Amino acid sequence: TFGFGLRNICKQLFVQISGWSAKMSLLVVGVAACLAGWVALYSLLCHTNGSRGCEWNCRLVTLLHGIMAVSVTAYIGYVDGPWPFTYPGTKNTPLQISAMVLSLGYFLFDMGWCVYFQTEGLVMLAHHTMSILGILLTLWLGESGIESCAVIFGSEITNPLLQARWFLKHSGHYDTFLGDLVDVLFVLLFVFMRVFVGGAMLYCELVSPRPKLVIKCGGVAMYVLSWVFVADIARFAGRKGSVRYRYWRRRALQTQDNKAE
């Protein structure tokens, strides 16, 4: 009887390990396929739009990923569910896994591109590293996918504005009303999503008994990194505001002088 029971336990354990290995293998294949897809898209853009340069084409890929990621994660959070502020730590759904695999493939591509061309500083590289590790951990645990999708949504929703700013700057249209509008919208949306919405999300994560401790620690780390970005943006906003104030002040004085003449 003891031998029969031991064989059953070993058989069940083998089935569970085999099922887990099959799922992990499928995830690895999915991430590799997404990574290959992003690399192929970038290569195609470089081939057909080579006159624009490597960074221009890389930012087109970044823009596409941002639009796709925001669209999918918005559907997950607002339609498919569950609501991340109420049900953190729940099991990953197939749609959540697909969204995370899609973004993980992109982050691996962009991390490799940034390291190769040395275009980003330590803060951005740290953000990419934490995003990759966070998604990997969520996929490995099989839970808290809704929080990861919420983080992807909050991180990528400002991406189109950030890329629009770069494209305006490198096409000679940044010092215009449109450039100012993009900057203002980017700063307001970034601070609102990263500080206020992100803070509420972190609070719900910390007070809920469902998410694992390692997930909560990851959430704290991402929120702290968001504040680093906010500090950089505040310095940028202060500098640009000062420059714009002097510019409009000078124009006002010139207008007054012209009227006096």
From TrEMBL:
Topology within the bilayer: Multi-pass membrane protein
Keyword Membrane: yes
Name of the molecule in the record: TLC domain-containing protein
Location of the TLC domain: 51-242
Entry's transmembrane regions: 24-45, 57-77, 97-115, 122-141, 184-206, 213-237
Sorted UniProt keywords: Membrane, Transmembrane, Transmembrane helix
GO cellular component: membrane
Protein location: Membrane
Species of origin: Electrophorus voltai
Pfam families the UniProt entry points to: TRAM_LAG1_CLN8
Superkingdom of source: Eukaryota
